[in-house]
Amino acid sequence: MNKRQARLFAIGSTVVAAVAFLALTIDSHRQFPALTNAQNITPAVTHGKNVWHKNNCINCHTLFGEGAYYAPDLTKIAQQRGAPYLQAYLRDPSKFYDEQRHRRLMPKQDMTDAEIADLVAFLDWVSKVDNQGWPPRPILVTGAGVAITGTRSADQAAAVSRSAPPPGPESLPSDKDPMALGEIVFRTVSPACTACHSLVPGANMAGPSLAGVATRAQQIVSSPEYKGKAKDVEGYLSESITSPSAHLVPGAMYSANGVSFMPATFGKDLTPDQVAHLSAYLASFK
C-alpha cells in the first residue's frame, strides 16, 4: 500500500466509522423513551429520586451497576421484594435483621411515610427500565442458595454454591420427574425464589429459609391456628405460592396489615402444572 492508498484508506475508514457512530447514536436516542420507561415518570417517581439522593443511598447501594458496592444492587429490588416489604423495611430495618448476627448495617433513615412511598415508586420505576440484563449478577443477599436435585438434606443444601448456573436445554428432565421440573421453576421463575428464600438452615432472608419447609408445612396444616384451606403438605405449599396471604406466618419480617410480603402474582404467572411441580420439589425438603 503506497502513501496515497494509505491516505484514502484512513479517510474512508474514518468516514465509515463516523457514519456508523452517527447511526447508532440516532438509533439509541430513538429507543430511549421505550427503554427508559420514560412515560411512567410521575411526580412521585421524581420526588423518590430526590429522596434517594437526599439520603445518600448511592453511598452504599448501586443502581444499574453504578454506585458503591458496600450494599446490594437495587436495580430490580422492587420486583424481587415488592412494595409492602420495602415500605416496612424502610420504616425500620432493624426489625428484619439483627446487625450483630447478620451484619446488616442499614441505618434507620427516619423518612416520612410519603418519602418512603415515593422512594419505593422510584425503585419500582427503575426496576422496569429495560437495562438489557445489566448488571449481570443477582442481588446480594445473606445465605442465598441454589437447589439441587435428588434426595435433599440440609447439609446438601448448605453445600450448594449460590452461583451455580441454571441447567441448559440438554439437561432438562422429562415430564415424568415433577421434582426436577419443580427445581427448574424454583431457579428460573421471575422474581426468582432464591431472591427471597435460602435453602440453608437458619439463613432467613426476605422470606424464611426453605430448609425443612415440608416438616413445618405438616405442622402448620395440623395446627388449629391454621387459617388456610389445604389438607396436606403439597396443598399448603401450593396455597403459599398462589395465595400467600391465606395463612400468615407470625412475625413482622414476613407480613404487615394482614398481607404477606410474598408476591401474590405467581398464581397468574405460573401454570397449574408449574405450581404442582414447584410444590413437589419443596415438599422434598423435610
Automatic annotation (TrEMBL):
Residues 155-177 are annotated as: Disordered. The keyword Translocase does not apply. Keywords: Electron transport, Heme, Iron, Metal-binding, Transport. Residues 43-127, 177-286 form the Cytochrome c domain. The keyword Kinase does not apply. InterPro entries: Cyt_c-like_dom (IPR009056), Cyt_c-like_dom_sf (IPR036909), Cytochrome_c550/c551-like (IPR051811). Gene3D superfamilies: Cytochrome c-like domain. SUPFAM superfamilies: Cytochrome c. It comes from the Bacteria. It holds the Pfam family Cytochrom_C. This is C-type cytochrome. It comes from Candidatus Accumulibacter contiguus. The lineage of its organism: Bacteria, Pseudomonadati, Pseudomonadota, Betaproteobacteria, Candidatus Accumulibacter.
